[in-house]
Amino acid sequence: xxxxxxxxxxxxxxxxxxxxxxxxxxxxxxxxxxxxxxxxxxxxxxxxxxxxxxxxxxxxxxxxxxxxxxxxxxxxxxxxxxxxxxxxxxxxxxxxxxxxxxxxxxxxxxxxxxxxxxxxxxxxxxxxxxxxxxxxxxxxxxxxxxxxxxxxxxxxxxxxxxxxxxxxxxxxxxxxxxxxxxxxxxxxxxxxxxxxxxxxxxxxxxxxxxxxxxxxxxxxxxxxxxxxxxxxxxxxxxxxxxxxxxxxxxxxxxxxxxxxxxxxxxxxxxxxxxxxxxxxxxxxxxxxxxxxxxxxxxxxxxxxxxxxxxxxxxxxxxxxxxxxxxxxxxxxxxxxxxxxxxxxxxxxxxxxxxxxxxxxxxxxxxxxxxxxxxxxxxxxxxxxxxxxxxxxxxxxxxxxxxxxxxxxxxxxxxxxxxxxxxxxxxxxxxxxxxxxxxxxxxxxxxxxxxxxxxxxxxxxxxxxxxxxxxxxxxxxxxxxxxxxxxxxxxxxxxxxxxxxxxxxxxxxxxxxxxxxxxxxxxxxxxxxxxxxxxxxxxxxxxxxxxxxxxxxxxxxxxxxxxxxxxxxxxxxxxxxxxxxxxxxxxxxxxxxxxxxxxxxxxxxxxxxxxxxxxxxxxxxxxxxxxxxxxxxxxxxxxxxxxxxxxxxxxxxxxxxxxxxxxxxxxxxxxxxxxxxxxxxxxxxxxxxxxxxxxxxxxxxxxxxxxxxxxxxxxx
Length: 715
What we know:
This protein is mainly β. Helices cover 14% and strands 35% of the residues. The protein has eleven helices and 39 strands. Strands 1, 3, 5, 6, 9, 10 and 11 form a seven-stranded mixed beta sheet that branches. Strands 22-19-18-16-25-26 form a six-stranded antiparallel beta sheet, with helices on both faces. A hairpin with a 5-residue loop joins β31 and β32. α3 (235-245) crosses α5. The protein is globular, with a radius of gyration of 30 Å. It starts with 29 loop residues before the first strand and ends in a 6-residue tail after the last strand. GO terms for molecular function: metal ion binding; protein-glutamine gamma-glutamyltransferase activity.
């Protein structure tokens, strides 16, 4: 075989990659099989004069396919389920002599074997699982068809054509954007890989466009509403653009495993110019602080329009945007919060904290970390690539933490596999297992280069895993879906299987003895004395302890060292020591170590606490009716003894008001500012207004208001 061209392609055939939904290459309107005899006019044969898609919100197509909430004038349907179209011809259709078919095309280089060119034949009866078109009505020159799509169809925007056969070739309709058809995943279809059999869960995990994200500390759990806005104008196109930007081959876009994995990579911009730039250093120049966002809509629309990553996000923002992406495409999804979430940097399934001989954290050796909480997503799908029983909820995480197959992404990882310790199954199961199940191992790095394990805390990580409850804003504990209770025989099997996997992959893991240590469990909300260390009652008293307390990041305040002979010691931390370094969450993370002088036993523990944050107040006056004007007032009072500068207030409410923002140059101490906007709701039912405030010195300030929007009275 010789090469006759200088052009290089990725395979043996000279066919460019088909990886853009937006790219087009229209098929010819006329395909002749040979010369047309003189005097023959192809227009004398059956010709299409018009196509009707029944794409209004009240039409049966959108109602039956649960797509009536999308703010779009295009036809949006779900795969594996029939829908209706009507074709008008230049004369009555005669099935005995007229032959036509509908064609769906996606991308620039459509191929039938790739599923990017779909010829839909007219059949007498529709068959489940196969494309087909059945004539359900004939009236004069019009034909109404029921079109059945495949439950494995590619998800995206298809171009539609009608092709008519003549003795001399094919006549095809020309490109008409009005007939474009979006096809989505279908959780209502039993043959679809994302089928979810519970109606209330479908309503929550697919159709609910407002969510609740939990954060804070396990002893002081806080929540904030998030506008997913998956039905807002332009969001569906933005989600398809995300896959285009990833150069994801169109032929793989019908597989929820591949779609969710690509999405987990593209929602962060770490290595692929994705949607969001992450920042955890409290510097947000030329962007929006993560805590200021109230939803996903502004972020996705800005990314689509600018074609550049949006600044900035942290875990809950990544999770919120990723949830919008999944639900918009039809994949059931929810945001999950894991309290005390480990980041296993070296894949040994444990969290190693290295200490100096004086008890301080050795930041050079300590590469693992523990977040007081971390948010990720769960997506519902079958897993035909895994053994039976490992389908259902899958962990997918778009926060850039560790590299997976060359990109910063995570999942989908089967939660059932994680729970039973089967971490050999793709994707990224060992990392997720460590996030919820790893032991915290405290190791002293001796000056002679040796490492001594001082103590192991087997219960600190993954203490509580939660999500929003179905049908309400309350909290749902899902910890038992990830792990068995500590001490349970099945939990021991879980650890055993995980350790066997490590052994088979030549990783090193040791089971260490546990030491009895503890931290006072008093709640912490306002500045003041902090109860630090409580020794085990099993230790003989009095004994002398030398204790260190420091911020884990070593940024907020200096190390306190003291000696005690009693069980409790309080350290006063003044506001001036941490206000200048307070990060997004208004959260303090303490690391406490102590050494018993008599026995040289080292005690260690970590604790997070969240400070009280003021709120934004939202008020509404006027009729709460679709199509009627009402006035929304946002109010904020500065509670600090210092002037707030560069204050931005953000406001949005899906179906009620588009995302808006307003700048206040400064707000003096104890002063109140008000901002009014006129809103005209366009969606009825239970709605929510969400507001946030951010400034140079105070962030993570929220407010929300529940609304019941009434339908417009019948005229």
